Amino acid sequence: MSTGAGADWTTEWTAALDDLELTLEQTEELLADHASAPVTVAVPWTPPQIATPLPPEMLERARELLARQQQLIVQTTTAMSENRQSSALVGKVVDAAGARHPALSVYLDVRA
């Protein structure tokens, strides 16, 4: 692979896999429980438009990244479901005085 075309081929695929790996790392960070950490947004990954097939020596790394991506899909779905359940429970919370907090804000006109 010392030819220019082969080097470009490998470089493109290396960059694409690096990009995917960075996105997976960002997603893992978002899913980790870091209450005090600033909120970051993972940049959505876009599949590369590479006209050449994946080099055979990169196949194992690509498979590992695919497995990580599939695990993160499951973890993200689970986290979203848990978040929805928690949000639903918040709406049912009764304060110490026994009053249920309404889901919508209520305003009182004190000028009347």
Question: What do you see in this structure?
Answer:
The protein is an all-alpha fold and 112 residues long. The protein has one domain. It contains 2 helices and no strands. The chain is elongated, with a radius of gyration of 24 Å. The termini are far apart. The model has no long low-confidence stretch (mean pLDDT 80).
Span of the ends, CA to CA: 82 Å
- Which regions have little confidence, pLDDT < 50, spanning 5+ residues? none
Strand content: under 5%
| Main beta-sheet strand count, sense and barrel state | none
Radius of gyration: 24 Å
Order of helices and strands: HH
Class based on secondary structure composition and strand pairing: mainly alpha
Count the helices. How many? 2
**What is the approximate shape?**
elongated
DSSP helix fraction: 40-55%
Oligomeric grouping of the chains: single chain
Mean pLDDT score, rounded? 80
**Number of structurally distinct domains:** 1
SSE layout:
Blueprint: H1 4-31, H2 59-90
Helix pairs in contact: 1-2
